[in-house]
Amino acid sequence: MKKLSTGLCLLFTLWQANCLAQKSKTLFTNAIGVQMYTYRNSYANGVAAVLDTIKSLGITEVEGPNPKNISPDEFKKMLDERNITMPSIGADYGLITKDPESVIKQAKFFGAKYVMVAWIPHGKTFIIDDAKKAVEDFNRVGKVLKENGLTLCYHDHGYEFGPYGDGTLFDYIAQNTDPKYISFEMDIMWTFHGGADPAKLLYKYKGRWKLAHLKDIRKGIANDLTGGTDTHNDVAVSTGQINYPEVLKAAKAVGIKHYFIEDESPDHATQIPVTIAYLKEVKE
Questions:
Q1: How far apart are CA 281 and CA 100, in angstroms?
Q2: Tally of domains within the chain
Q3: Is 207 domain-assigned?
Q4: Which domain holds residue 46?
Q5: Whose CA is closest to 200, among 143, 154, 235, 242?
Q6: Which CATH number does the domain housing residue 257 bear?
Q7: What pLDDT is attached to residue 223?
């Protein structure tokens, strides 16, 4: 009887340990990427030096394309030499709507699968007419990209969360673009800064989100619909206002494919290691 009791106690202890291990499982398990715009002011010191820094941080993916001061061929060669891939590239709205073939050619050259557009042209305030035009353009261009094996992703920027109907202008865009052709990249900071709840929005449009920008905003900065804020307000992930464990859990649940740190702050060199350390340590 004593042996049976001891055995049961051991089984219970192992069960408890397993439960604790499950509860403390690492939340972020994807490759760590970076949006190249982060280093826009560093290229004067040499693109190779920037890529060496990226590699030294353990970053294995970038969102491009190439910086303006280097050719696509040179940049791709540098990426290949460092085993860094480019699963996504950014494209200007005007270019992709007028000449999608050139964007397709560029994306395929770098081996990208996703093309993201980060800004819809508009006046002082983003209005329904802007959203309607974007929907029409995105559906048209997204179909062309899809036929060429690429996925068009719209990157939200905060100004789309103004009210419209029973929801927001972003809801209008999401509900009127064709899911076969249009997906999304969530910029977590801009989503929050525009007044939306990033985690809830991820769940709301589950299946549409493919990419994410990892960034945070300084505590005390008020939300607005401008789609802009001082770059000094970009802070290391987990040190600002956003509930990152909740957002990362949602992002994992909805199947985000690639994550890119985008730190626009002049202090990105000191902040990015903090962000990476957090991503490696954060638990479910």
A1: 40
A2: 1
A3: yes
A4: 31-281
A5: 242
A6: 3.20.20.150
A7: 98
